[in-house]
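Reopening this ticket.

The earlier resolution said the output was attached, but the attachment link was broken on my side. Pasting everything inline this time so it's all in one place.
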Amino acid sequence: MNTRITELLGIEYPIIQGGMAWVAEAHLAAAVSNAGGLGLLGGASAPAEVIRDMIRQTREMTDKPFGVNVMLMSPYAKEVAQVVVEEKVQVVTTGAGNPGAYLSMWQDAGIKVIPVVASVAHARLMERAGVDAVVAEGTESGGHIGEATTMTLIPAVADAVNIPVIAAGGIADGRGMAAAFMLGAEGVQVGTRFVATKEAVVHQNYKDRIVKAKDIDSAVTGRSHGHPVRCLRNQMTREYNRLEAEGKSFEELEYLTLGSLRKAVQEGDITNGTVMAGQIASVIHDIKSCREVVEEMEAECVKLMRDMAERYGR
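Inline output:
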């Protein structure tokens, strides 16, 4: 599938792996890039030198394009922004803010800049700033979320901007990919499906929890304080929602979740940790290699679109 996204990023398939904190490290990013997609390293709140090491580790495992997700609210964002230039990273995606302060530096270095947006207004702002594409992320996604669903957000953003749109949120197979293309996207960003892969350096408990997830297992915490986070239901989410209903302060609730994502990802505590995952977890039933995920998604998407054309074509 050749789209403006494959041409822009120099990849075989228009499939991007989400830059998930504590999950998107060198092994996963390299595996996705080697499979023909675009692997991303999750900057999260890690210091710049940690990101530099991750970039160099990834380069040892792949000669294909890969990128870094820069979390703009990180206390190290400025230093990380400089490191991606020094290390000649090909692609940067951004989240949690406006990348305007770093755009000129990145563009001068030839880096492709793709912000994650959750609204038409943000997408238009980014296009005016001169970014190369946007990831429009629906509320079905795991982790920090907006309000608009993928089904409504993608066509709205695609209609509003002329740069390529990458769809994210609720996409884990070729069906979701085909739907995203029908809505106007030219690529997809996938998170939860890549957590449940052989190459993801994630505790087996975390992967098993995704595979066993039911359609009613998705929970959102933090809505009352304007910081909604989607994860899988467990003791932590129940306690968080109880305290939130009692009107506890944002600081008190943050203390409850301090280090909880690491606890789930690295230690396998899926009872008290934060098991970030999208609503699509309920249709993920196995652990596959990244290559299997990428190639099967693309093949299923192409088949569905061809079948649709044959069935309804004139």
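Reporter confirms the inline version is readable. The mean pLDDT is 92. DSSP finds 14 helices and eleven strands in the chain.
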